[in-house]
């Protein structure tokens, strides 16, 4: 199979349920050139090295016109400027530092920790909501509403508005999918429209917070100032949109992939029920074994880069296949085995380097609490179909529905 065919197979929906054998093929050429000048990197050390390489840019404005056409630049030329996910230093670092001030160390080290009680309450209310049903769709009934409720509380966005931004968030997440069968310009147009509408919605809230700040992140972004000064209104908007979207689909997929994996490994599910402490290494192993972000398709080289006997020329588009790096036998012992006792587990599930996941502490806590509570409360849970139907998206990969049958809820 040629590398081009291989990539097409990876993006092909027919292989969504199990792309891992295709990644194993891909790793035979650690850095492969595709027909259209795209370079795909699939081995752990090469991905790790490029994620730390300042000659690789995340800035959307550096994407080649070809890549910009093939990939939706949903932030381009819309009401919203690029968020810090799509910027390079020094702009990236400044905005990330300013966003971190109200979220994590050194200024707000307790923020996520202090949310524990509230998160546990949301989880247990959602499980209570299963009522006396003996079958639920874990995605719609649990793993979607949970992180969405949490990110709304964190940002200070009224949960009643969820229905309004649900479809914008879905559209923006779908636009990340490099689906070769779709017209990229049409996809970009739709994504830009969604971003604009989300921007208009958020700007109303931001105006409110400016007048009457609360203790939420949106208020902190609007009013906060430190050594880096204050964010401009447009910077607040694009940062709030980034947090809202990033806090959506990814954690949904981690919880759904997690429950699917546990139901396929009932011995581990039983261990988690008996020992909630297992949740910590278990979630790390899930991030390695079934990462919600499978690949990063938006990097550009700023210089010629020699790597793995290949020269990636300046201006090339690069895809970093995190999920393949996570299964690289050169890095992980017996990588296709799901092993929550794995000690050496420096996975790529949250990326690495300067863009490593900003929300990782929150995402970890959410998944740990969610899976522990599901394991504890569901009586004899089992999958109704395996594999479940997946979302179209090859980048943010996870089940669209996860129907689970069970014999009642434990108290
Ligand atoms: C399981 C859930 C999650 C996964 C697997 C995940 C994964 C990732 C990955 C792989 C990156 C690196 C992107 C890159 O290098 O281009 C990233 C960045 C980011 N994530 Fe997450 N994420 C998750 C949850 C969250 C949550 C809950 C938030 C918000 C609270 C969040 C906010 C961000 C932000 C703001 C960035 C950009 C960081 C930067 O550019 O410096 N993520 N995430």
Automatic annotation (TrEMBL):
<dbReference type="InterPro" id="IPR002397">
    <property type="entry name" value="Cyt_P450_B"/>
</dbReference>
<keyword id="KW-0408">Iron</keyword>
<comment type="similarity">
    <text>Belongs to the cytochrome P450 family.</text>
</comment>
<keyword id="KW-0479">Metal-binding</keyword>
<protein>
    <submittedName>
        <fullName>Cytochrome P450</fullName>
    </submittedName>
</protein>
<dbReference type="GO" id="GO:0016705">
    <property type="term" value="F:oxidoreductase activity, acting on paired donors, with incorporation or reduction of molecular oxygen"/>
</dbReference>
<dbReference type="InterPro" id="IPR017972">
    <property type="entry name" value="Cyt_P450_CS"/>
</dbReference>
<dbReference type="GO" id="GO:0004497">
    <property type="term" value="F:monooxygenase activity"/>
</dbReference>
<feature type="region of interest" description="Disordered">
    <location>
        <begin position="66"/>
        <end position="90"/>
    </location>
</feature>
<dbReference type="Pfam" id="PF00067">
    <property type="entry name" value="p450"/>
</dbReference>
<keyword id="KW-0349">Heme</keyword>
<dbReference type="GO" id="GO:0005506">
    <property type="term" value="F:iron ion binding"/>
</dbReference>
<dbReference type="InterPro" id="IPR001128">
    <property type="entry name" value="Cyt_P450"/>
</dbReference>
<keyword id="KW-0503">Monooxygenase</keyword>
<keyword id="KW-0560">Oxidoreductase</keyword>
<dbReference type="GO" id="GO:0020037">
    <property type="term" value="F:heme binding"/>
</dbReference>
<dbReference type="InterPro" id="IPR036396">
    <property type="entry name" value="Cyt_P450_sf"/>
</dbReference>
């Amino acid at each position: 199979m040629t590398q081009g065919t291989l990539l097409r197979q990876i993006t092909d929906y027919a292989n969504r349920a199990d792309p891992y054998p295709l990644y194993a093929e891909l790793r035979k050429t650690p850095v492969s050139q595709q027909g259209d000048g795209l370079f795909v990197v699939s081995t752990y050390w090469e991905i790790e090295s490029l994620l730390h390489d300042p000659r690789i840019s995340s800035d959307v404005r550096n994407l080649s016109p070809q890549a910009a056409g093939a990939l939706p630049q949903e932030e381009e030329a819309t009401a919203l400027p690029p968020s810090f996910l799509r910027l390079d230093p020094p702009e990236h670092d400044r905005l990330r530092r300013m966003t971190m001030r109200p979220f994590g160390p050194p200024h707000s080290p307790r923020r996520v920790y202090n949310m524990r009680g509230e998160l546990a309450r949301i989880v247990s209310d959602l499980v209570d909501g299963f009522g006396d049903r003996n079958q639920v769709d874990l995605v719609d009934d649990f793993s979607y509403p949970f992180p969405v409720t949490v990110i709304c509380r964190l940002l200070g966005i009224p949960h009643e508005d969820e229905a309004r931004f649900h479809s914008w968030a879905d559209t923006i997440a779908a636009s990340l999918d490099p689906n070769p069968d779709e017209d990229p310009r049409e996809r970009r147009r739709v994504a830009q429209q969604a971003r604009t509408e989300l921007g208009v919605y958020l700007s109303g809230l931001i105006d409110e917070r400016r007048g009457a700040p609360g203790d939420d992140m949106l208020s902190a972004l609007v009013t906060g100032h430190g050594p880096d000064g204050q964010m401009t209104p447009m910077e607040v908007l694009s940062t709030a949109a980034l947090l809202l979207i990033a806090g959506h689909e990814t954690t949904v997929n981690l919880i759904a992939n997690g429950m699917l994996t546990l139901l396929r490994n009932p011995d581990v599910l039983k261990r988690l029920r008996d020992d909630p402490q297992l949740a910590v290494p278990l979630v790390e192993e899930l991030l390695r074994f079934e990462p919600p972000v499978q690949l990063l398709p938006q990097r550009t080289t700023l210089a010629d880069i020699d790597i793995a006997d290949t020269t990636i020329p300046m201006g090339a588009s690069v895809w970093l296949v995190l999920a393949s790096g996570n299964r690289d036998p050169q890095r992980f012992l017996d990588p296709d085995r799901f092993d929550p006792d794995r000690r050496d587990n420096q996975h790529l599930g949250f990326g690495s380097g300067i863009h490593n996941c900003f929300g990782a502490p929150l995402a970890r806590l959410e998944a740990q609490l969610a899976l522990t509570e599901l394991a504890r409360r569901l009586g004899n849970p089992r999958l109704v179909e395996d594999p479940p139907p997946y979302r179209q998206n090859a980048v943010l990969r996870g089940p669209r529905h996860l129907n689970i049958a069970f014999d009642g809820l434990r108290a």
